[in-house]
Write the structure tokens for this entry.
Amino acid sequence: MDKQNISVGLDIGTTKIVAMIGRKNEYDKVEILGLGKAKSMGVHRGVVNNITQTIQSIQQAVQEAEAAAAEKIEEVTVGIAGQHIRSLQHSDYITRPNSDIVIDEDDIDRLINQVHKLVMLPGEEIIHVLPQEFKIDGQAEITEPIGMYGGRLEANFHVVVGQVSSIRNIGRCIKSSGLELEGITLEPLASANAVLSREEKEAGVALIDIGGGTTDLAVFKDGIIRHTAVIPFGGNVITEDIKEGCSIIEKQAELLKVKFGSAWPGENKDNEIVSIPGLRGREPKEITLKNLSKIIHARVVEIIEQVFVEIKNYGHEEQKKKLIGGIVLTGGGSQLKHLKQLVEYITGMDTRIGYPNEHLAGDSDEDIASPLYATAVGLVMDGLKRQERKKAEAIEEELIIENIAEEVEEPEVEVKPEEPTRERRSFLDKLTERVKDFLDNAE
């Protein structure tokens, strides 16, 4: 099979590590060839805290995916999230030396590179610089400035910041697992690509991805990402609360949550009881479902309220910034019973559960279309997109070289056309390069 058209997404989560192999079919949909998952050891709240255990979990997931797809995995697209990710809004401008020449890619790159000089806290680095809208000579709300005239080019940016060490540790785990890093993507962006439609992103929507260790938020409006946040709570905290509240072991608490848990206490009658076997011959424990949902409810309300604060920080209450598309819930935690109703009750916003089935081939396994795998599907899609971009760039470079060979002019002609092609790479591609360089030099 053609290796070129295959992409592998690696979702390094707090509870599970997922390796997913996919390719585009003739209808431009993603066909999943293999899926492997392993219990995540060594990751806490989205951050690697034990390299050896993480490598073992990655290898296990990758081997399972390879066996399912009968394919050898060499390169992976990995997602970064975790409690160290934060975002900020920033405005910047450049003055162009000659306003008689139209604005081109180089001007935008100059402006974006300027944002990269922002001073961050020690150990932090800018991961993503996303232009929101541009201003030319004071004229606002310009979405595409290329081809226009103007002396002063200004833009509002959404800047995502993360800890360099955490990103390098992920790179280290991948390299030590015998894999190459093809690309790095922000996990809330990957999940958003998998479960949101273009219309929703235009209308305004908040994606809430409830994972095991963290809850990721991505807010879109007018088709552009406006706000991102990572809340350091997820499904694991709920399990922990059940364990403490009912005095049972973690395994039983997780089973109780998945099988009988509900985010809405009013749904359970007082006499509904679950019996849990005691440890080593001890008496079984009896737990009422009403109590169980009270414990879950308290923690879920806390998580949703924190997310809602972030949505308000974006400015959802202003008429112009209203999120007409409401909220989309995804991730493993979104499968909790009655969660949708609770979110609607707390936020007053329309809510739906996001399944990554819109971009998947029609005959995909039902399990894969679960919110649990939204990030992994998004990472596969991102890898495929990156490959298409590389192909287009390679073709463009070939054409340039052919033209140069035909014209055979001064040597400086050779350098010029290749500049934009090289510069146009996204900052995540550049971050990937930096992580690769660091790992190569650290050997």
About this structure: The radius of gyration is 24 Å. Residues 235-299 form a domain with the Nucleotidyltransferase; domain 5 fold (CATH 3.30.420.40). The chain has twelve helices and 18 strands.
